[in-house]
Amino acid sequence: MKKLVLAFALLGGIFNLSAQEEEEEQKQGWTKEGNISLLFNQSAFNEEWTGGGTSNLSGNLLFDYNFNYLKDDFTWDNRLLVDYGITKQRSDEFARKTSDRLEFNSIAGKQLQDSNWFYSLFLNFRTQITKGYKFGEDAETRETTRTEYTNFLSPAYLQFGPGMMWKKSENFYVNIAPATGRMVFVDKDFTSGPGYVDGDYFGVDANKAMRFELGASVSGYAKFEVIENVTMENLLNLYSNYLEDPQNVDIDYTMNMKMKINDYLSTNLIFQAIYDDNAVQGFQIREVFGLGITYGF
């Protein structure tokens, strides 16, 4: 499965490279661009419907803001991303999140002569916005139960470090940082309960609120036009912790395909795959598809 995810991302990058046209001269100074999208999914069934099904309603909010700086051989790219989704089925007592991500990325680079290589320094911060729950069922009443498992800044990940960046354009680059520090922050309440075992909650030890790691990070970004009015954006982040199980590489891959209808309507397909053995022993997969109302600024 890991190989499939990596191959998909690499193929996207290769396609982008082969299809890349000669870049126009880049503007100096600050450039800013943002988009807000709201995706909707809805199904409804009346009481007489015999084919099975449950009425449901879901929505997903995407906020994406880029502010980048270019001055001669110095480049500084910044991106703020908010992705939040929720769904409610008629038969469920509680609404459930389908996505919850708050992320900030920043990478500065100093160009090596007249090449595509840059000395780089990057920072990545990500967390979630609202509480997350594990759902179950009461053995006696058969009612749905939920237990709080995550919250704002619990967990939160902060990565930073120097490295080398290969950058073809604003839409295609790869950053390699062999000395990356990573801190995992959690609410101490989750690690201080009776019977807590070191590392059970996102790798953090008992009665601690932070875990420090030192490792290697590789990140890539590729955005290209598949066909007219259809764009695909790929984000890939890999991380290996030198201090513990370096062979267990954390993977975070996101693909966002936007099919433009007009200036305000689009159809979006979002696919994300995460592997982090400190969180779950296996891949976390999510997919969102829906009609989007989009506003660019």
TrEMBL record:
Keywords: Signal. Residues 1-19 form the signal peptide. Pfam families: DUF3078. It comes from the Bacteria. This is DUF3078 domain-containing protein. The lineage of its organism: Bacteria, Pseudomonadati, Bacteroidota, Flavobacteriia, Flavobacteriales.
